[in-house]
């Protein structure tokens, strides 16, 4: 057996700090403020174990393709066009940026809809 073959299947367990740093590099913002030390360690272990299936950016979301949505309306239903909420310019810019990001990620697309509902900005 060669020296390189004997080292191939070595599993090196990462320390808590190594896992925490890897999660922070991926974009996780973790704090132990409301958790006991044991709870925080368990959270870091769990998030680290499943880090590859958790999206940290909308561009990492897989999206849904090949699905047609069909909404059945009751007879006589008429489109509702609610007024948009008024936002100051800096809030409208936040909304524009978010919509642009969702369009680029393929989450939403421009359409010709007759039902309009106001946008609620949550920060």
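Sequence proposed for the structure above (123 residues):
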């Amino acid at each position: 057996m060669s020296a390189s073959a004997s080292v191939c299947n070595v599993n090196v367990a990462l320390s808590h700090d190594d896992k925490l740093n890897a999660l922070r590099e991926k974009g996780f913002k973790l704090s132990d403020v409301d958790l006991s030390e044991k709870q925080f360690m368990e959270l870091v272990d769990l998030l680290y174990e499943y880090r590859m299936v958790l999206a940290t950016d909308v561009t990492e979301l897989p999206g849904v393709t090949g699905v047609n949505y069909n909404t059945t309306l009751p007879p006589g239903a008429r489109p509702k066009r609610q007024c948009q909420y008024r936002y100051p310019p800096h809030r409208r810019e936040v909304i524009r940026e978010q919509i642009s990001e969702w369009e680029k990620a393929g989450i939403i697309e421009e359409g010709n809809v007759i039902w309009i509902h106001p946008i609620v900005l949550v920060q």
